[in-house]
Amino acid sequence: MIDPRGPRFGAWITTFVLAAVLLTGSALLLAAQAVVFALGTRGRNPYVLLWKRFLKRGGPAELEPEAPARFAQLVGLVFATVGTVGFLAGATAVGTVATALALAAAFLNAAFGVCLGCELYLLVKRFTHRTPHEGAPA
Amino acid sequence: MVLVVSTLLGVLHRRREGKVRQVDERDRRQVLALLGEAPGERATLLQFSSAFCAPCRATRRVLGDIAAQTEGVRHVEVDAESHLELVRELGILKTPTTLVLDGRGHEALRAVGQPTTAAVLQALPS
Total domain count for chain B? Predict the structure, then answer.
């Protein structure tokens, strides 16, 4: 169980970093953010660790399970990796679109507390796991 | 630009989240039978959840409390991932999604997202 304020704070920093990537087109900065996401998938997001160390005040109103936050970090990692490769390979459009999607997700999480795992996980499962003998939708 | 679009999406999302909405009435007795569940005498709150979903937990608490305090109301929680065919058939896109079934096992209302206790109580068939 985790304090949900940590990931929310992390999402704000991520929003600023990704906005800076969009403005500068810097593959290096996006690569750095990808590393942050990779650490986040293991519950070691540096932004969240910073928050815990220096900014945390009092207890949370409510604890949340950790799996949703880690799933969101994994989604971020995928977009940041695709974007970094895009920028490095000279496919600026790919880099820009991937970064923009990651930015939108981070901002929605930070400002509105939108839960990516809730919105995306089931959809992904629905489309990736087709069963052979499946009836027509009722 | 991205932030403006995201803000609009976020506002839209917030307005829809957890609202109990009217749907075309459908007999869902077969769904309950498939899950091996008996319908509640007055209502069944059929909640679809997934592992990567924090509001699912909060919703479980809301619906569980209602079921515990209201006679004839059952709360049934289903792992959406392990019932994907059912999820497709019912047109469920995200978790948590809660189907409000009446005593006959018919669905007339559903809530997408985390509903409030008041909204669910109001939606319960009398």
Answer: 1
